[in-house]
């Protein structure tokens, strides 16, 4: 089981800037919990995501000496990937490839074809720099724009990623549109069809629907889950009303019910939860 904590996703849409020192202290607390990966920041235009304009400064303040957690940074184009790749502390570069053409334009100002060209270049860059590309299939469970969506379309995108050599693909429920009826068939079809790819679930959800979504992905064989403490955050490019992230504490409850070890230091998690309350309360 791999748990990926996403403070970047929790912070990115907040209107008030969280001071760099506060971000750094919170991330350092999260680094002690034992998450597989920390989605900690993004190298994108500060005009697009002003909240994360200090990612390089935050990175410089992280204490990785006592943590096994790997760092992931989100990038929106090849230039951002080249910047992120210069930092040896970063293990993963994450790129949002949208199943929806409309959202690709809104999110990265590209066509889907242009984005796929970037993905190929980013994967090659990662190979040269000792990093791994994580492709997020945004709007992976449908979209609000009327763009075509079907399991076959998602499979076709995955096939193109596999052909490029991408090894981690996270199906992303960018607006909380997924249900068990869409989650289970997708993972059940994709996981055996692409044995060389590790599939993850980046599920946005309302408080009442989280359990069915996690269960649907888990039953279908997914063992990589993204979450954010408190269920905070969402994609500011997707809608005005943000649908929150999957709450990490809910993921932990689900795993405990299943008798599955999370691998986390629960005391450290409690400290991070307490800090999250103060970090996000005033923003």
Write up what this structure looks like.
Mean pLDDT is 94; it is low at 236-242. Helix 7 packs parallel to helix 8 (180-193). The protein has a single domain (2-281), classed as Alpha-Beta Barrel (TIM Barrel), CATH 3.20.20. The protein has helices at residues 7-11, 20-30, 55-60, 78-85, 101-108, 112-129, 151-164, 180-193, 210-219, 248-258, 266-281, and strands at 2-5, 37-43, 70-75, 90-98, 132-138, 168-173, 198-203, 224-227. The chain has an 8-stranded parallel β-sheet. The protein is of the alpha/beta class and 283 residues long.
Features:
TIM Barrel; Hydroxymethylglutaryl-CoA lyase; lyase; metal-binding; HMGL; 11 helices; alpha/beta; eight-stranded parallel beta sheet; PYR_CT; 283 residues; globular
In summary, what is this structure?
The protein has 283 residues and is of the alpha/beta class.
Structural classification: alpha/beta
Using the CA coordinates, give the radius of gyration: 17 Å
Overall pLDDT: 94
CATH superfamily caption: Aldolase class I
What is the general shape?
globular
Total helices: the number is 11
């Amino acid at each position: 089981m791999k748990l990926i904590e996403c403070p970047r996703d929790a912070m990115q849409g907040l209107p008030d800037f969280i001071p760099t020192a506060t971000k750094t202290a919170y991330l350092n607390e999260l680094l002690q919990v034992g998450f597989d990966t920390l989605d900690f920041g993004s190298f994108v235009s500060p005009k697009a995501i002003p909240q994360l304009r200090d990612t390089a400064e935050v990175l410089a303040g992280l204490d990785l000496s006592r943590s096994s957690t790997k760092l992931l940074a989100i990038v929106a184009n090849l230039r951002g990937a080249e910047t992120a790749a210069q930092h040896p502390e970063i293990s993963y570069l994450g790129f949002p490839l949208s199943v929806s053409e409309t959202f690709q334009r809104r999110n990265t100002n590209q066509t889907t074809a242009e984005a796929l060209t970037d993905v190929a270049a980013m994967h090659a860059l990662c190979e040269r720099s000792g990093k791994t590309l994580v492709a997020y299939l945004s709007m992976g469970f449908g979209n609000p724009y009327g763009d075509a969506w079907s399991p076959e379309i998602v499979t076709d995108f995955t096939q193109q990623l596999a052909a490029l050599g991408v090894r981690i693909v996270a199906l992303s429920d960018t607006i909380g549109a997924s249900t068990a009826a869409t989650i289970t068939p997708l993972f059940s079809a994709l996981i055996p069809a692409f044995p060389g790819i590790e599939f993850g679930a980046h599920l946005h959800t309302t408080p009442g629907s989280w359990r069915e979504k996690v269960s649907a992905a888990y039953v279908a064989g997914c063992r990589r889950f993204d979450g954010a403490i408190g269920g905070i955050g969402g994609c500011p490019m997707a809608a005005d009303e943000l649908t929150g992230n999957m709450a990490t504490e809910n993921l932990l409850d689900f795993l405990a019910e299943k008798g599955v070890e999370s691998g986390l230091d629960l005391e450290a998690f409690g400290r991070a939860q307490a800090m999250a309350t103060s970090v996000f309360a005033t923003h």
